From TrEMBL:
Domain Phospholipid/glycerol acyltransferase: 118-234
Region Disordered: start-end pairs: 1-27
Key word Transferase present: yes
Source species of the chain: Tieghemostelium lacteum (Slime mold)
CC terms in the record's Gene Ontology section: endoplasmic reticulum
Source species taxonomy: Eukaryota, Amoebozoa, Evosea, Eumycetozoa, Dictyostelia
GO process terms (BP): phosphatidic acid biosynthetic process
Descriptive protein name: Phospholipid/glycerol acyltransferase domain-containing protein
SMART domains assigned to the protein according to its UniProt record, in alphabetical order: PlsC (SM00563)
Length: 342
């Protein structure tokens, strides 16, 4: 079957109006911008991620021992758990610092997925995709990520695993299947939502790639509702080949979730979902501009002005009252031992 075109490709069977809309979107190019602006934004994001990660590690025992049990006792909705609120705040702050605005369509469709077993699948063309879903998905969800990231950036991704996100070893088929089965058990038993990119990795050109079967094995095994999501503009904001992201606007479209038919197979689910997502990508939002205004690094600049002196003073305080006395104690013990030995 000939592959359908996606957002950035011309589809000859569409009307001239749709053709023009697609060509307008695909021909958008980022405005000329000082690389210093991009560097300031990325520096602010990295500082925010590091600072926030340390804070979450600090409060993790309190959350596990006190906050989570209290939420379960009082039957608080999962989206209002402390870590879910913090996760949304973390992601929204990243987008704020990158000066990326979000336009949302169709989030009301996911009301039927609240507290139900759901597999959310999304088009993946940028680092921004999971961050945007973490920030603005109407239902709290856990992401599936590459197990290698646990070793590349353990401080962040070990924490991600502790809060419920699922690492998968994609290099070993048996291990990947076991992880999918474990995820399916969690989804069906606790009525959770798991979010996964069926493409497996970011699209190099912004077009929807072929799908892998893992997401649909997971959906079929857990008898979940499938919730497709597509993005417009993300590939232009932060392409896989670009180190520094652009500022602009991302458009998120939540499609109608659907229950799995009884006679479904993994292949039929895959084909059905891909067709729905391709069809949506062929109908871009009207009058949507990825770069509607001049780029800016104002948010990040203000953040750095506040945070750098603050962190410096915190470190200075810790060094004066904790690190220096500890080092002095170690030094004095060493001197004492050497003197006694002599």
């Amino acid at each position: 079957m000939e592959q359908s075109s996606s957002l950035h490709q011309r589809h000859k069977t569409k009307s001239d109006k749709n053709e023009n809309e697609k060509l307008t979107l695909s021909s958008q190019t980022p405005p000329n911008e000082f690389k210093l602006f991009k560097l300031i934004r990325l520096t602010a994001v990295l500082l925010w991620v590091c600072t926030f990660t340390v804070l979450v590690w600090i409060i993790m025992p309190l959350n596990l021992i006190v906050l989570d049990p209290l939420c379960k006792y009082f039957r608080v909705r999962s989206k209002n758990y402390s870590l879910e609120i913090l996760s949304r705040f973390w992601a929204k702050s990243i987008l704020f610092l990158l000066n990326i605005k979000i336009v949302i369509e169709g989030d009301q469709h996911l009301e039927i997925c609240q507290e139900k077993a759901t597999v959310m699948v999304y088009s993946h063309s940028s680092y921004l995709d999971p961050v945007i879903l973490q920030a603005y998905s109407p239902i709290p969800s856990k992401f599936i990520f590459k197990r290698e990231l646990l070793y590349i950036l353990p401080v962040v991704f070990v924490l991600a695993a502790l809060v419920g996100h699922i690492p998968i070893n994609r290099k070993k088929k048996d291990a990947a299947i076991d992880s999918i089965n474990d995820a399916a058990e969690v989804v069906s038993k606790y009525n959770k939502c798991v979010t996964i990119s069926p493409e497996g990795t970011r699209s190099p050109d912004g077009n929807l790639q072929s799908f892998k079967k893992g997401a649909f094995h997971l959906a079929l095994k857990s008898q979940s509702t499938i919730s497709p999501v597509v993005f417009f503009g993300n590939h232009l904001l932060w392409p896989p080949t670009q180190l520094l992201p652009n500022s602009g606007t991302s458009y998120v479209r939540f499609l109608n979730p659907y229950r799995i038919p009884q006679d479904s197979t993994v292949d039929s689910l895959l084909d059905q979902t891909r067709e729905v997502m391709l069809k949506s990508l062929e109908s871009p939002p009207k009058n949507f501009q990825t770069f509607p205004s001049k780029p800016s690094a104002k948010h990040s600049f203000i953040f750095l002005i506040i945070m750098i002196p603050l962190l410096y003073n915190i470190f200075k305080f810790l060094h004066s009252y904790f690190i220096d006395p500890s080092l002095s104690l170690v030094y004095n013990n060493l001197i004492s031992q050497n003197t006694t030995h002599f």
